[in-house]
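Quick one from the shared queue. A colleague (R.T.) flagged Putative NAD(P)H nitroreductase as missing a structural entry in our internal table.

Convert sequence to structure tokens.
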Amino acid sequence: MPAPNQAALDFLLTRRSRPAKTLAAPGPDRTALEPILTAGLRVPDHGKLEPWRLMVLEGAALARLAQLAADLGEASGKPPEQTAKGVSQFSESPLCVAVVAVPRPTDKVPAWEQELSAGCVCLSLVNAALAAGWGACWLTGWPAYDAAFLTGLGLGPGERIAGFVHIGTETVAPPERPRPDLSATVAWVSE
């Protein structure tokens, strides 16, 4: 029988992302963020390709990206509420870690698996931040798919956003929500 880590299992069974609108300053400083980033990068990575990179966005960078989202949303004719949502995820965020998927050329690991690894980084960052006592959530939104926004963020050719992980001080605990029904989502295959 394996030796369980009950505290870790209890955490995973009760973890809950915190809505971005419930996060406030302060966010973690660099000393507090370092173990979160370190834990966040401990993900499956077939071939040790590290097909991702992180950009820690704070202060003036967040304000610049909020303005960029405002300008691009208006210029492209997005509905005001959609533009506002893209703006607020940067203007109201105490700290944001952009997880950039950077697929590496190789015949051994398909690009899809490399992108999944970048997604694992997003969830791992959220879980590490929550375990460290911060509120955190993983978002994308239209800025994550807008070529001009990605250029303004500093992404290169072939790079894409796996997620924006927002981290800050939790102001309100969200209510529990219904969870997936195992009987509806799990198939037991024995033969």
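The longest strand covers residues 160-170.
The mean pLDDT is 96.
Added to the table.
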